[in-house]
Amino acid sequence: MRRSTGWPLAAAALLLLGCLGPFADTFDEAVQDTPADYDECCIDADRALLERLAGVPVTAAAGGDLDTVRIDAVVTTRQLDAATERDVSWGKDGDGLIANTDTTEYVLALVRRPAGGDQKARILTTVTVFARPADAWRTSCPSATACTLPAVYESAPLVDPSDGSPVASMIIAMRVPVGHTVLLTTDPPKAAGPAVDLRTGRAAKFPARA
Question: Which of 21, 86, 158, 210 would you label with 94, given CA atoms 20 to 30 Å apart?
Fold first, then answer.
């Protein structure tokens, strides 16, 4: 996560107390900007690291690969393991994802480059999170409560953020409303096109346009 810089010494001391002391969780949430709902971590990760990060057993993916991305394992959890989260290198915001809320959960996937494919290609993907199929293509709502807009995350998940070089595997993580559908597609998604359900690791279809 992004944090302010150039704080006075007293504020820095308070930050240290908040990060290490008994008020760590409360303080950390107070100084965060908006949560990173999508992030990438763990270059050359394996299932063991995914399981440590999730804190619960992972599910081996079955049949949900795209042409450019292989889904090795998936998991849904209400809270990431704090100790492991501190140890991993997050790709987008640097500090990973903040503590969960009562209405959200994490969906994580271990992605790999498929065997036999171009191991140097820059792969682009889109993750779309929505409550109902009818929401998948929405771009506006007639009122604040009339519909749910999808959350769309465009990414190059198999690229080292430090230098842009291709990597063999990474973990992608999303914090989503409990029970929402999470689909991975090539970028951009196509109506009725191939997708992967990141909760199950199985092949799916992106919703057709209404």
Answer: 21
* Residue 53 neighbours by CB distance under 10 Å: 27
CA distance 127 to 129: 7
Axis crossing angle, helix 24-31 with helix 9-20, rounded to the nearest 10: 130
Residue with structure tokens 């198999």? 158
User: Which of 95, 42, 50 lies closest to 77 in space, CA to CA?
Assistant: 50
**Listed residue (158, 208, 159, 200) closest to 183, CA to CA:** 200
The pTM is what? Answer: 0.79
Q: Write out pLDDT tens, residues 32-86.
A: 434 568 989 999 999 999 999 999 999 999 889 998 899 999 999 998 888 888 8
Q: How far apart are CA 32 and CA 111, in angstroms?
A: 28
Distance of CA 178 to the CA centre of its chain: 14
Farthest CA pair distance, the chain: 56
